[in-house]
């Protein structure tokens, strides 16, 4: 419109109209682009910023509580109907012919995948879930369910027994997802199979932590021996020596009396503990095993909580101030930090009061101290992550969950024990971290927290999902060692392992 008015009133010569027309059209076009840009900017500004949208409120249809999820699982019609599906878990004596028959079937399936035209070689991981007797599975879940409200037992170091079971309940979350009806599952990178020859991996659904804490000592050891015999009698175990079997032993005290006989299996662990206090040399190593996060004790500080949080404390720690083994650094740090400005160091207490105090402290602090406990890791690290509090990790031997996928430098601060114990060094270091660097880590904490929230159904990019993403990376190496173990002859060099064998070393001997 403006262009037409201009030209009708213009007395410019005809030879000058073309450049003027081009100029006016250019102005019009730029104005149009400016209008589009400002419109899109105003519409996007009405939505929450990226940093607050990254971690939305948890899905109300998803259970993040172990107790709540277990209640529904045990009382649902699906909890045992899945176990009743016909499949080929072996019960009874196994012969060498049974093992050879299974190996032939697996070889045939793998050859079909390799040379087939259906791209099945690149398909999701296939997991066979053993149909173990209920005394190893459902009976133990019911034992926890029926006793947790009445039980106030504490371990020797003062930790509530049932709280420990909850924070090490990774065996429940993985199993509940694997045996759920496929129509209800959300994870796509792992599928359950019902024929052993179709499996890449074999999952052992034995609740080692519940049995350790809730059974009498001798009863527990007897159950461990039964579980050991049951699993090692399976033809799939005999075929591979257990190298393609997944064993959840997430509490370092659990399954201790017999696990040396299952050291070839893939262990799901809280950490490696290279001190030798919990695992013997050659039992655990990163190439074979997988580190899984503890289940957080505290509730998620969601995007609204993160925006509303007033973080006035520089550094916070609440927990037992004296620990054994590698955790002795705690008492030294306490002596160094006690009474410092903007620092809160508190002795932890059991129960809901202690949990509430820890949650308030973490949500009002910028940094949360995460020193080694009896083992290099502790649940406190994951409590800090879901609370939006930047972990200050003082644990020289710590191995972290899913580190092949997640970069912890973006959410945490790593400090060596020797530096942390220098007078005044730690607080000076923390105060030197710029507000920009702090903000970046807080934004990343909001993103990363989803990776540490176990749930049912299991959520994409949740810890259950990352387990199978990490397993996919291990799978070719697992198959390599299985095949290699099957074909070596007596004159060959020893099988490649990370175990150091001394001259004249003896075999572990017969099963207990």
From TrEMBL:
One of its GO terms (cellular component) is Golgi membrane. The keyword Transferase applies. Its main location: Golgi. One of its GO terms (molecular function) is glycosyltransferase activity. It is found in: Golgi apparatus membrane. The chain crosses the membrane at residues 20-37. It comes from the Eukaryota. InterPro entries: Exostosin (IPR004263), Exostosin_GT47 (IPR040911). The keyword Membrane applies. It is a single-pass type II membrane protein. Pfam families: Exostosin_GT47. Keywords: Glycosyltransferase, Golgi apparatus, Membrane, Signal-anchor, Transferase, Transmembrane, Transmembrane helix. Residues 124-428 form the Exostosin GT47 domain. Belongs to the glycosyltransferase 47 family. PANTHER family: EXOSTOSIN FAMILY PROTEIN (PTHR11062:SF184), EXOSTOSIN HEPARAN SULFATE GLYCOSYLTRANSFERASE -RELATED (PTHR11062). This is Arabinosyltransferase A. It comes from Sesamum alatum.
């Amino acid at each position: 419109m403006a262009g037409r008015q201009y030209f009708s009133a213009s007395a410019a010569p005809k030879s000058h109209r073309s450049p003027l027309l081009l100029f006016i059209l250019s102005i019009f076009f730029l104005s149009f682009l400016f209008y589009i840009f400002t419109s899109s900017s105003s519409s996007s500004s009405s939505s929450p910023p990226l940093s607050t949208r990254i971690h939305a409120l948890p899905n109300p249809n998803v259970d993040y509580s172990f107790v709540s999820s277990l209640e529904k699982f045990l009382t649902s019609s699906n909890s045992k109907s899945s176990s009743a599906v016909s499949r080929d878990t072996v019960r009874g004596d196994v012969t060498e012919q049974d093992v050879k028959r299974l190996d032939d079937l697996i070889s045939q399936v793998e050859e079909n995948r390799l040379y087939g035209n259906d791209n099945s070689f690149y398909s999701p991981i296939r997991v066979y879930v053993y149909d173990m007797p209920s005394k190893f599975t459902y009976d133990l879940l019911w034992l926890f369910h029926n006793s947790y409200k009445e039980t106030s037992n504490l371990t020797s170091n003062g930790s509530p027994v049932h709280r420990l079971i909850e924070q090490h309940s990774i065996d429940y979350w993985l199993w509940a997802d694997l045996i759920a009806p496929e129509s209800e599952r959300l994870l796509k990178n792992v599928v359950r199979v019902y024929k052993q020859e179709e499996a890449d991996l074999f999952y052992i659904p034995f609740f080692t932590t519940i049995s350790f804490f809730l059974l009498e000592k001798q009863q527990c050891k007897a159950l461990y021996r039964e579980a050991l015999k049951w699993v090692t009698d399976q033809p799939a175990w005999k075929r591979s020596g257990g190298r393609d079997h997944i064993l959840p032993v997430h509490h370092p005290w659990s399954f201790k009396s017999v696990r040396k006989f299952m050291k070839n299996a893939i262990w799901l662990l809280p950490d490696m503990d290279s001190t030798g206090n919990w695992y013997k040399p050659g039992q655990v190593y990163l190439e074979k095993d997988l580190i899984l996060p503890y289940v957080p004790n505290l509730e998620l500080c969601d995007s609204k909580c993160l925006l509303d949080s007033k973080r006035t404390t520089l550094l916070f720690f609440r927990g037992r101030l004296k620990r054994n083994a590698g955790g002795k650094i705690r008492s030294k740090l306490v002596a160094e930090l006690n009474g410092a400005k903007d620092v809160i160091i508190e002795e932890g207490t059991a129960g809901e009061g202690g949990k509430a105090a820890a949650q308030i402290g973490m949500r009002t602090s910028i940094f949360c101290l995460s020193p080694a406990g009896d083992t290099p890791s502790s649940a406190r690290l994951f409590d800090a992550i879901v609370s939006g509090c930047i972990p200050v990790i003082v644990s020289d031997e710590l191995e972290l969950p899913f580190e092949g996928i997640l970069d912890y430098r973006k959410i945490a601060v790593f400090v060596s024990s020797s530096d942390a114990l220098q007078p005044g060094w730690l607080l000076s270091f923390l105060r030197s971290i710029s507000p920009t660097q702090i903000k970046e880590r807080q934004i990343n904490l909001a993103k990363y927290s989803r990776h540490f929230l176990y749930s049912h159904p299991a959520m994409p990019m949740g810890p259950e999902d990352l387990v199978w993403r990490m397993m996919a990376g291990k799978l070719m190496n697992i198959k390599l060692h299985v095949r290699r173990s099957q074909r070596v002859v007596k004159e060959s060099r020893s099988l490649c392992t990370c175990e150091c064998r001394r001259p004249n070393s003896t075999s572990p001997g017969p099963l207990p």
